Amino acid sequence: MADLEAITEYLDSVFKPYLFDDIVLNGLQIKCANKQVKNVGLSVDVTGDILAKAGQKEVGLLISHHGLLTRELGRFDLVMSKRLNYIFTNNINIYACHLPMDAHFEFGHSHVLAKMLELADPKPFPNENIPYGCYGRWLGTAKELENKLDEILGTRAKKVFRFSKIVRNPKVAIVSGSGTAFLNDAFSLGINFFITGEPRYSGLVYAKDAQISVFCYGHYQTETLGLYELANHLKSKFDLNRVEVLHSFIDF
Ligand SMILES: [Fe+2]
To answer: How much distance in Å is there from the Cα of 218 to the middle of ligand 1?
Structure first.
């Protein structure tokens, strides 16, 4: 058992959510009656099936990348009411961590992927003030990079747009989730290959003229890597029974 406040205070100190202007309302979004937590779950989204899994596994704190409450949420309707009813009935506290997680060098999905790929000379992308991604050089061929990405992220949602003529030692940038808005920055930095989650048509049109190949491996698939890192970290930091990543996704 661990104290809920101790965990959330620790998460605040690690991610500093108050520093980020974000569409997701970061930090503790839902506070239920329970003050002690036995199991922690981590998820990309907070959907009905994630909540059902959290309930079955007696998760007292769910840490979610996209969270439940966002600025885009227009109204509380029956969909939200159903979720909230389940949340408060099952005492599932919810902590959201979106951009603060993306920008974190240890737990950000793009930073974790850059480490797994062993990119040479990794740097925050697009820059140190907005480090939501990471860039560096892949020492190998384009095919070797693609094989490695297939191995790490799977091919379920894979779409590759080959616009670059570079086949060896490309300069690579990674922005997990929906990253094509950063293609201008990629061009300024001389990036050859851009790895992200979902393709956006306007971004691809730009990438074609900029001769940047775009590797899309799925919004969801690119946004679980940091959750596993954080799960392992929390296991060693707090006296918890179980810490696990809960899955539910739409192919996109
Ligand atoms: Fe996302």
So the answer is: 10
Angle in degrees, 0-180, between the axes of helices 48-56 and 78-89, rounded to the nearest 10: 10
Write the single-letter amino acid at 242. R
DSSP state of 223: G
What distance in Å separates the CA atoms of residue 24 and residue 103, rounded to the nearest whole number? Answer: 14
In the chain, how long is the greatest CA-to-CA distance? 58
- The predicted pLDDT at position 72 comes to 84
Q: For the chain, where are the E strands, in sequence order? A: 2-3, 27-30, 36-37, 39-43, 59-64, 93-96, 120-127, 130-137, 159-161, 171-175, 193-196, 213-216, 242-245
pLDDT in tens, 144-168: 999 999 999 999 999 999 999 999 9
For domain 2-98, the CATH class is: alpha beta
Hey, which residues does 196 pair with through a beta bridge? 175, 216
| Residue 52 alpha carbon to ligand 1 centre in Å | 21
108 CA from centroid of ligand 1 (Å): 11
Ligand 1 centroid from CA 199, angstroms: 13
Beta strands in 97-192 (DSSP E): 120-127, 130-137, 159-161, 171-175
Architecture of domain 109-219: 3-Layer(aba) Sandwich (3.40)
3-state SS, residue 29: strand
